[in-house]
Design a protein that fits this description.
alpha/beta; globular; 8-stranded mixed beta sheet; 14 strands; 537 residues; 6-stranded parallel beta sheet; 13% strand
Length: 537
């Protein structure tokens, strides 16, 4: 089927355009959404952001994936291009003036070196001492002027660079004051002044969505909520009915800001508040977050909960792909105790506690399966492991495809979730929790509210006080002392069935059908048993 015009031979239930502000690869939730919706008969086009501007397209089952180049024309605040007359009166104007003046004085110094060199050569070759002395004396004023000019240019360039660093960070008292004033004066529309770079997504995605003419737009997270809401308004202005599903992955007011600025977080929260009422339906990742979103945005109905659970079954073409051997990649045998962390790597995820614990856990190895194995945070953890003398027991590995995660992790002895206490960490049963469960791994989980509570109620692992090294060591040793006891929990009928993507996809499919007034699919009463390929006994 041609997704531009809707022609094709296969009968479809409706055209769905899914939006995400990343490169799709590494985002298991949107990949599973697209594939399962296409399998259920929807015509799905998933639009993502091309990393480094490298546009691409491919198929996820019957779903089309396209990566769009998002040019960051508006990513810098307009203030970045202005002079700071009060705070940095001697700074050069932005752009190329500082570089030009620096090169200019460097060229002056090079010219003076040339003249000095000529005089030195003349002296060596027996030139007139008087002429050489006069020539050197004539250079003195120019050399003094060049020295002063170089220092002055360096000072002004330093002033410019200091101003630009502050403006890139946007975390000064002035920035905080501006953020508060804009929010008070402009309300939810303040994001347009505080973070104009959000318009870059509109400029890139908007025209593509308009050409695709969807019947339903599924917007993942707040940036795509704004893009989708504006696309829906344009379509309705042209007489077309388009439904909007907003997929809220986290509680935005409670996150640790992705950008360390005083402007970004208030702007993001304001944008979400402005466009949340435009959604025809809201889905989210946990029961607690559903209640928080309804209260925060005054939603008419309670959002549907769609967990980012792993798939119980894998398509034959994907199942045929070989799964990497976790232990072989770590260089350890089957009897070596191995704890694993899989997911995003950041300070608030608490990964450092696993490294700090290694000297107290004799013979235990730690594997970190992360998206960016060479980023600064992971390099810091490697350096700390080396300082502790345990570098040989720390292993950093890249992601595997989402449909291989549970089978890949099953070779470990413990699945670790050491996250710190942040509002969003308290409310969700995160993906890795369910991936560990399907890998039948005993868990060591920090005492965040939802995951800690579930772990204690099921008995599938031990809970420790977040950021408490002694308690983490205690919990890890307890699990290693009797792992079979914790693994046996997964034999309980129905426990793993509720944590499958197949069950979640039905919720999403029924929501699409109801919004577009299409018949719901008839489904078998009994689902096939989840595949346990690769799971250790």
């Amino acid at each position: 089927m041609d997704p531009e015009n809707g022609s094709g031979t296969r009968e479809r239930r409706g055209r769905v355009v899914m939006l995400v502000d990343n490169g799709v690869n590494g985002d298991s939730r949107v990949q599973k959404q697209a594939r399962s919706a296409a399998d259920a008969g929807w015509e799905v086009i998933l639009l993502g952001r091309a990393p480094n501007g490298k546009v691409a397209s491919w198929k996820l089952g019957d779903a089309d994936v396209r990566l769009i180049e998002v040019e960051a024309h508006l990513d810098k605040h307009p203030m970045y291009f202005r002079r700071a007359w009060l705070r940095r009166p001697f700074a050069y104007p932005p752009f190329h003036v500082a570089r030009y003046r620096t090169a200019q004085v460097d060229a002056w110094h090079a010219y003076l070196r040339e003249r000095r060199t000529k005089l030195d050569v003349a002296a060596r070759e027996g030139g007139s001492p008087l002429r050489i002395a006069v020539g050197r004396a004539a250079l003195v004023p120019s050399r003094g002027g060049a020295f002063v000019a170089k220092r002055w240019v360096a000072f002004r360039r330093h002033q410019l660079e200091s101003m630009q660093r502050a403006r890139r960070r946007q975390d000064t008292r002035y920035d905080r004051l501006v953020a508060r004033m804009q929010t008070v004066l402009r309300g939810d529309s303040a994001w347009r002044r505080l973070e104009p770079g959000m318009w870059d997504f509109e400029l890139a995605y908007g025209p593509v969505i308009d050409r695709l003419k969807p019947e339903l737009i599924h917007a993942n997270d707040f940036r795509m909520l704004g893009v989708a809401a504006r696309a829906v308004m344009r379509a309705r202005a042209r007489g077309r009915s388009v439904k909007l599903v907003w997929d809220a992955h986290e509680f935005l007011p409670g996150i640790k800001p992705w950008k360390d600025t005083a402007r970004w977080h208030p702007a993001a929260v304001a944008m979400e508040r402005e466009y949340a009422p435009a959604a025809d339906a809201v889905v989210t990742v946990s029961e607690m977050l559903a209640d928080m979103l309804r209260e925060t945005h005054g939603l008419a109905g309670r959002p549907s909960v769609v967990l980012n659970a792993p798939s119980a079954t894998v398509a034959p073409d994907l199942a045929a792909e070989p799964v990497p051997d976790l232990r072989a990649l770590c260089g350890v045998g089957p009897d070596v105790p191995l704890m694993v962390y899989s997911g995003a790597a950041a300070k608030q995820r608490g990964l450092d506690i696993m490294v700090e614990a290694l000297p107290r856990l004799e013979g235990v190895h730690a594997a970190f399966v992360v998206l960016y194995p060479e980023d600064g945070y992971m390099r810091g953890l490697r350096a700390r492991a080396a300082a502790l003398g345990v570098a040989d027991r720390m292993h950093v590995l890249p992601y595997v495809p989402h449909y291989q995660v549970s089978r890949f992790l099953a070779a470990a002895d413990i699945g670790v979730i050491p996250i710190h206490h942040w509002p969003n960490h308290e409310i969700a049963l995160i993906t890795k929790f369910m991936e560990y469960a399907h890998a039948r791994l005993p868990l060591v989980v920090s005492d965040v509210k939802t995951m800690g509570g579930v772990t204690e109620s099921t008995g599938q692992g031990e809970v420790f006080r977040a950021e408490d090294l002694e308690d983490f060591v205690r919990a890890t040793k307890a699990v290693l002392a009797d792992p079979a006891r914790y693994r046996a929990v997964y034999d309980q009928p129905g426990l793993l069935d509720q944590w499958t993507w197949e069950a979640q996809a039905e919720i999403l499919d029924d929501l699409y059908a109801d919004l577009l007034d299409r018949p719901r699919l008839e489904r078998l009463a009994e689902q096939p048993e989840p595949a346990q390929t690769g799971v250790r006994s």
